[in-house]
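Course assignment 3, question 2. Fill in each field.
Student: A.L.
Task: Predict the tertiary structure for the chain below.
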Amino acid sequence: MTTETTQASPRPMRADARRNYERLLVEARTAFTAHGTDASLEDIARRAGVGIGTLYRHFPNRTALMSAVFQGEVDGLLTRSRELLASPEPCRALVDWLRAIVAHASTYRGLSRALMAAQSDEASAMARCSLPMREAGSGLLARAQSAGAVREDVGITDLMQLTNAISLAVEQSPDDPGLADRLLMLTLTGLKAPGGAGTTCPDA
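Answer field:
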């Protein structure tokens, strides 16, 4: 006898639940921007006009809420990575991609730490943000390596950790607007392949 198993599709949200979900995302984004990712979840729920229980029904923990808030920005970064794959300057494309990640991560205090942690915890809700970015960055890194601009022993995981560390440094030094580019250029210097095209990789 053959048994067929049908997986039910998730039920769509009711209109009121969808409104609550959207309000929570709006208030969470506002709170994370103003106060960092450690902002009070109770305050976020209150400003959204719902109870904390409603927040936890939509987002079982802080990390899940962060992942949902940042998904739009991640989608934008993924779109940018696809555009950069067509760039005639692979090294410049990689630098532009890293700069975009730093700008994104340093917008929210605490985000860079969460992204760094997600690199080693694929079960984390933040992996929904970090894993696609790592995959996108792999293509840009491979092009730069094929062009001789970046050492062959550089891996995308190490590169993303370095980039998130730069974001953390930028987050902690808001009065130094040039810090990100200086640290990116120092990083690039360490990544350059010896001789060849790597020595002519353009500056930021």
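Instructor remarks: The longest helix spans residues 62-84. The chain is about 65% helix and 0% strand.
Grade: pending
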